[in-house]
Amino acid sequence: MFSRVAAPALTEAQLFAALHPQLAAWFRRRFTHFSSAQRHAVPEILAGNSLLLTSPTGSGKTLAAFLSVFDHLARSHDAGQLPDGIVAVYVSPLRALAYDIQKNLRQPLDELGWPWLRVAARTGDTTPAQRAQQRRTPPHILVTTPESLTLLLSQPAWIPALRSARFLLVDELHALAENKRGSLLMVAAERLEEIVSAPPSATADRPSPISAPPAHLVRIGLSATVAPLDTVAEFLVGPHRPCGIAEITQSRPARIEVFSPLRAQAYPPAGYTATRVLKELGALLLKKETTLIFTNTRSGAETIGLRLKQLLPEFSDLIEVHHASLDRAVRLEVEDRLKRGELRAVVCSTSLEMGIDIGSIDLVVMVSAPKGVSRALQRIGRSGHSMGRTSHGILVASNINDLAECAVTARMMERHELEPVKIHDDPLDVLAQTLVGLAVFESVTPDEAFALVRRSYPFRALPRPEFDRVVRYLEGGGASLERNYRDVFGKIRVDASGVLAPAHRHTARDFYQNIGTIVSEQMVQVQLGRRTLGSVEESFMKGLRPGDVFVLNGRTIRLVEMRLLTAKVAAADSALPTVPRWYANKMPLASGLAAEVTRLRTEVARRLASPVPDAAAAWLQSEYHLSTANAAALLAHFSLQADISVIPTADLFLVEVYRDRGLLHYFFHSLIGRSANDALSRIVAQRVQETRGGNALVTIDDYGFLLSLQAFQRFADACELRQLFRRDGAEDALRSALGQANLVKWQFRGAAQTGLMVPRRVRGAERGRRALQWSSEIIFDVLRRHEPDHPLLREAYAEATLRFLDLPRALAFLDHLASLPWDLRELDRVSPFSFGIYVSKIKETMTLEDPETTIERLYHEMYGQPPGRPPVATAAEKNQPPPNFLRPPLPAV
């Protein structure tokens, strides 16, 4: 079903000839030649074939998709057959990206001189007047989001305009494939397919459901970084439909470099080394026109942004911070200044990873490894964001473990080894929302609705009993609620003719007001005077008292008072801040990266034991292109680990025990990433509680987890510990552990909102966040006691275990662990490989300025002077501007 576009179907001259003459003439004037992405994609789309196009940022893939759309529209216009409705639907995951594309489309259309071609954006920000105008005069190209498209498909007034659609363009497909917005979009695509293929005899407002609609809709998926391609192509078009795949990996050169702030001696593997890179970052800013600095946390962005302003006071007004917790007006102001070239640097977390136009970026700096190859490639693509320019990215290692990650990431970027996308299968809350939409608008039977959703990839294997349980929930709330609360929770019914219909007059209104999968968060707005700076989680604000100081938007501010969900603050420029640590900021290590780090550890351990001198150093330098100094730093760290304990490898499971202040600290070296370690540690902690009693304190990271026990909970040997890691009954242990935690309850709030059990909006007004929380918790407690298999409760558990905790990866590790030898060691100090996890346990009590000096002191007290320390930098090296330890430039990525 999926065919690789191995070579361009047309030569350059043939492709120019294939396009509409006016379009070809304009393109020749503007660009002179086609990019590789365009030469591969345009002939396929012109031929009416669906296509997945994956190509680096700045390779012209968006224009490749729109060239075919423009060609179709121009030929229809010349033939007098241009429809009054929508011809192409462009879907973006971001409102900002949707507006960006709409704006960028106007320039070529103005240059082409085609005033007859209409383009409009429809998102949540579109005003009522604009919506009314769009209904009266539909655009030929509609730029929208998954939520707005779903809304339009459920409004009879829009169906005539949508019936003329021939193209569905999905941009940044990787950002949609891994979340429920993508599931919502793919079901919406099937509904659009059905509308497009409806016979002319169908009524104007209600198309007849067709069991197998012809593939009249050309679907085009665009992504810079996504894998595996066959799976993503099937996600785009649905099972059993053909789709071409064009993969462009060599479109433009890229420089990927690894830098560390290493100087005279190794530094702790626990982080908090920001001050060591500040001077280097400052030097980079002075050498470049515009630098984009990515961090892995919003708090990290705030910290580095603030310190750079303090380090370079003459440029403080030209350095800004950008992340999702800042107010939209603040973010738009930063983006506009960036586009106009007015800023020397912007420090952000993930908010600028998407392909919105941010102007000319000379350099992308990533402080700490970004935990995924796809994310790293996406970030580096923000520099040199135009055809013919070179992307330049620097991975800055903040500690010794991070140096290994950065080296591995750069190597995998060079080889374009992407981690596989994780698509949500059978999200039952999205199914519930879809069924309500079908009941509101289309005359479909349950059988027809089941066939429709099964044509989409996320629901391709949906069991009929699961579908029927969701229908029952929508009819009255479910088995535990329908007897007494059918009128409250009932949303649909099967009428006398056997089709789905709204249960109440207000069902349609409630559905229109609550479309989408984006869950309301518990956020507190932070206001400085009359200006809203941004927002932080309520749980963070509850821990502050009036007079406490923290950082937001790169500014040091003092809390004055807090009223409900608004915090009043005042400027505190000279005060010592405490940076907020947001819950959503910890990104887990991707599975591919974890496996490669394990390989690095295993190979270094083997070569350190080799009789060949410097075998390990030579291998690191040749395999990962590390400098002499960086290779020496890693080897010093590994050698110290080997002296104190043993190096954990792919062939050995290491468990270390350290006594401290009456507690026994068990360090389990399971290099499977934070999410999987979170699941694994909960299973182990639950079994400790069941076998030993008492609570088990757990600290997790990407490299393993720490279990802190009291003396009476001690495990005598490895045989006893093995029982904690048995595969049999692991799912039951996790379910028991989650029954005592808030994670499933927290996930249920989202499922209840998406599944329309707890609506976000009632009668056009937003419900208070406390009201949403209270309602969902009451329902959760009832269902947990009386209907544990309720569809929304099952979805909450799936969300918690499959997408938040990564239970499958943890279970796979348990299966593998059954055949591995164990090495249990009791140590008189924390080993270097465990030091990072140990510090994670204690650093939450430290202030912003204390951790660096405290952790440095603790590290050297524990290990003394590490053996095999790297060579001292010369005076010339110390004065050399960064990056001082680099990989050679790669030919292209």
TrEMBL record:
Keywords: ATP-binding, DNA damage, DNA repair, DNA-binding, Helicase, Hydrolase, Isomerase, Nucleotide-binding
InterPro entries found in the cross-reference section: ATP-dep_Helicase, DEAD/DEAH_box_helicase_dom, Helicase_ATP-bd, Helicase_C-like, Lhr-like, Lhr-like_DEAD/DEAH_assoc, Lhr_WH_dom, P-loop_NTPase
Region Disordered, annotated ranges: 865-893
A family per Pfam: DEAD_assoc
Protein name according to UniProt: DEAD/DEAH box helicase
SUPFAM superfamilies: P-loop containing nucleoside triphosphate hydrolases
Domain Helicase C-terminal: 277-429
Keyword Chloroplast annotated: no
Every Helicase ATP-binding domain range: 42-244
